[in-house]
TrEMBL record:
<dbReference type="InterPro" id="IPR017685">
    <property type="entry name" value="ArgP"/>
</dbReference>
<dbReference type="InterPro" id="IPR005119">
    <property type="entry name" value="LysR_subst-bd"/>
</dbReference>
<dbReference type="GO" id="GO:0003677">
    <property type="term" value="F:DNA binding"/>
</dbReference>
<keyword id="KW-0238">DNA-binding</keyword>
<protein>
    <submittedName>
        <fullName>LysR family transcriptional regulator, chromosome initiation inhibitor</fullName>
    </submittedName>
</protein>
<feature type="domain" description="HTH lysR-type">
    <location>
        <begin position="1"/>
        <end position="59"/>
    </location>
</feature>
<keyword id="KW-0805">Transcription regulation</keyword>
<dbReference type="InterPro" id="IPR036388">
    <property type="entry name" value="WH-like_DNA-bd_sf"/>
</dbReference>
<keyword id="KW-0804">Transcription</keyword>
<comment type="similarity">
    <text>Belongs to the LysR transcriptional regulatory family.</text>
</comment>
<dbReference type="GO" id="GO:0003700">
    <property type="term" value="F:DNA-binding transcription factor activity"/>
</dbReference>
<dbReference type="InterPro" id="IPR000847">
    <property type="entry name" value="LysR_HTH_N"/>
</dbReference>
<dbReference type="InterPro" id="IPR036390">
    <property type="entry name" value="WH_DNA-bd_sf"/>
</dbReference>
<dbReference type="InterPro" id="IPR050176">
    <property type="entry name" value="LTTR"/>
</dbReference>
<dbReference type="Pfam" id="PF00126">
    <property type="entry name" value="HTH_1"/>
</dbReference>
<dbReference type="Pfam" id="PF03466">
    <property type="entry name" value="LysR_substrate"/>
</dbReference>
Amino acid sequence: MKTDNAQLAAFAAVLRSGSFEAAAQALHVTPSAVSQRIRLLEERMGQVLLQRSTPCRPTPAGKALARFAEQVSLLEAEMLGEIGAGGGPEVGPLRLPLAVNADSLDSWFMSACQEVLTDAAVVVDLRVEDQDHSAVLLREGSVMAAVSASPQAIQGCSVAPLGIMRYRAMATPGFVHRYFPDGVASASLSRAPMLTFNRKDELPVRFLGQFGERALTPPTHFIPSTLGFLEALKSGLGWGMVPEGFIGEQVAVGDLVDIAPGYPLDVALFWHRWRFASPVLDRLTQAVRGAAARGLRPPVSPV
């Protein structure tokens, strides 16, 4: 069974944009043309590939096809660029959908992108996702590569260690004086307000687990912004887990202190990418590994 490139492009465009109308605008065709291409593709495959929801989402069968559609799009764009033919309105620049956790994005990751994005021929579509959950997007075919905390290779992908991001539990001196006058313990941890990035953020729970207190449910503020998180921390709103690279100046001037200096939390990060030949993914992988070597602690060597 052969697939039709125009139908695949329409399918991928609907998933990227979330609707038939937005996909039509991206492809410079009418919504009815997109609908017809999707219908013909589903007839060819013999099953429904898209959930007609808001936004549109792939069915289980559609998830398998989504990665193939993105791979075809990448290979086509690279081939056209190599022969100097240009992309045309339906191809456009070479697009790299990537998943990265917010802390990496706001520290070391963008320097890697800057090495690859030398002109408008390549664009990135960054999805901010928790390092413990970004691998899900790879399985779904939504992204071509991801920074993840999982060392397990996903089917069709390769994985390589990047390094260690060390987190410390930080708070203002005033907050520590109020809630931890006798040090960090079960009773004080249960009362002290805690800052969490979002409901997927498992770092505070893992920190509490070092004290055998995973069942604790302290008052929790959810602040899904790196800048907002740091501002809330410095204002004394609560204690929170912060990458050590973010807090050097605040520690030096005494604005923040480590509430449990002997209990850092190390998160190993890994680079997952599709396992097929692609010059741009190769360049990005090399740039990511170089940026990680500069911005992270060295990875732990296997015993």
